[in-house]
């Protein structure tokens, strides 16, 4: 498949390697600040023309929280299957969903493309369901990432917290700041630290007066994210179960349910 990359930073370079390893061709790399990008520009008519002229059959976007929404709204109308890994935009998801529906294209997003984290999500959901009956356990989430990360909390941390609140009725409100008061029992605290070169670590704590249960996912490298993003595009660009091109907004749950 001919793939265009929008955002050619740490993840863009890792994704290029993963794509080439799987026999794809990276025909265009777009990034306004990366001097080694084939198209050193931001979202623009020039960028869209470059992608169109490249014959790209799929696009993978890993840019910046401040740029991703503009990129999505520019790239979706091209009709080229689009995979977005950039975090910090899902508050605009419903607008994106409407655009995808109106333009009848294929869009897949995930805050974390690694297989391990998507299995971890299922473990956390089940653990939260178990804990619903044991009120003596409080719960919180902690995430740590490298000191180059531009958003907080992590998209993965937010997804973990959402799954806990979906399955643990006593936790109704997400709190992601520093406390200057005692937490309310109904508040789920999600805390973040930015340090060194940490690829991404997420821990869920279930804590009682008697003991603590910790569930942790530790990413060792970014390779899992990159490979997962390329495999997600392969799936998105493949025909659906009905044999027709996929249309709509998808997540990694859809990929795992079919693969
Ligand atoms: N979904 C997942 O599995 C993962 C998601 N991420 C997310 O991906 C994003 C990027 O992460 P990294 O590659 O580590 O960051 P990075 O900072 O190394 O690379 C981002 C690149 O985007 C470029 N950029 C900025 N504005 C742009 C625009 N308008 N158009 C095109 N490119 C633009 C920057 O110049 C930079 O080269 C972050 O939001 C991060 O949270 C990171 C790893 C895994
Ligand atoms: O910025 C990163 O590096 C990562 N960001 C994603 C997130 O915000 O969850 C995924 C992964 O943890 C790495």
From TrEMBL:
SUPFAM superfamilies given in the database record: Glyceraldehyde-3-phosphate dehydrogenase-like, C-terminal domain, NAD(P)-binding Rossmann-fold domains
Binding residues for NAD(+): 85-87, 110-113
One record GO biological process: lysine biosynthetic process via diaminopimelate
Pathway(s): Amino-acid biosynthesis; L-lysine biosynthesis via DAP pathway; (S)-tetrahydrodipicolinate from L-aspartate: step 4/4
Keyword Cytoplasm found: yes
Binding site for (S)-2,3,4,5-tetrahydrodipicolinate: 146, 155-156
Entry GO MF terms: 4-hydroxy-tetrahydrodipicolinate reductase; NAD binding; NADP binding; oxidoreductase activity, acting on CH or CH2 groups, NAD or NADP as acceptor
Top-level class of the enzyme under EC nomenclature: oxidoreductase
Catalytic activity: (S)-2,3,4,5-tetrahydrodipicolinate + NAD(+) + H2O = (2S,4S)-4-hydroxy-2,3,4,5-tetrahydrodipicolinate + NADH + H(+); (S)-2,3,4,5-tetrahydrodipicolinate + NADP(+) + H2O = (2S,4S)-4-hydroxy-2,3,4,5-tetrahydrodipicolinate + NADPH + H(+)
Keyword Signal: no
Entries under InterPro entries matching the protein: DapB_C (IPR022663), DapB_N (IPR000846), DHDPR_bac (IPR023940), NAD(P)-bd_dom_sf (IPR036291)
Keyword entries, A-Z: Amino-acid biosynthesis, Cytoplasm, Diaminopimelate biosynthesis, Lysine biosynthesis, NAD, NADP, Oxidoreductase
Residue intervals of the Dihydrodipicolinate reductase N-terminal domain: 1-113
Subunit text: Homotetramer.
Full protein name: 4-hydroxy-tetrahydrodipicolinate reductase
Source organism: Teretinema zuelzerae
Record gene name: dapB
């Amino acid at each position: 498949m001919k793939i265009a990359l929008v955002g050619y930073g740490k993840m863009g370079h890792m994704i290029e390697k993963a794509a080439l390893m799987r026999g794809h061709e990276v025909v265009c790399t777009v990034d306004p600040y990366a001097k080694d990008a084939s198209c050193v520009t931001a979202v623009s008519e020039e960028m869209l023309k470059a992608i169109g002229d490249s014959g790209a059959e799929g696009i993978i976007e890993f840019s910046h929280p401040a740029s991703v929404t503009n990129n999505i709204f520019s790239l979706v109308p091209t009709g080229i299957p689009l995979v977005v890994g950039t975090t910090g935009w899902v508050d605009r998801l419903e607008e994106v969903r409407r655009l995808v529906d109106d333009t009848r294209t294929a869009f897949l997003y995930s805050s974390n493309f690694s297989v391990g984290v998507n299995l971890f999500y299922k473990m956390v959901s089940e653990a939260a369901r178990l804990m619903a009956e044991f009120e003596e356990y409080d719960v919180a989430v902690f995430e740590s990432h490298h000191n180059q990360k531009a958003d907080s909390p992590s998209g993965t941390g937010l997804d973990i917290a959402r799954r806990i609140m979906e399955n643990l009725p006593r936790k109704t409100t997400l709190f992601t700041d520093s406390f200057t008061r005692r937490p309310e029992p109904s508040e789920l605290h999600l805390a973040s630290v930015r340090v060194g070169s940490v690829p991404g670590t997420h821990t869920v704590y279930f804590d009682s007066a008697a003991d603590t249960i910790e569930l942790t996912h530790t990413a060792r490298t970014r390779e899992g994210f990159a490979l997962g993003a390329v495999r997600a595009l392969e799936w998105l660009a493949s025909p659906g179960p009905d044999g027709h091109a996929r249309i709509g907004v998808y997540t990694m749950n859809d990929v795992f349910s079919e693969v």
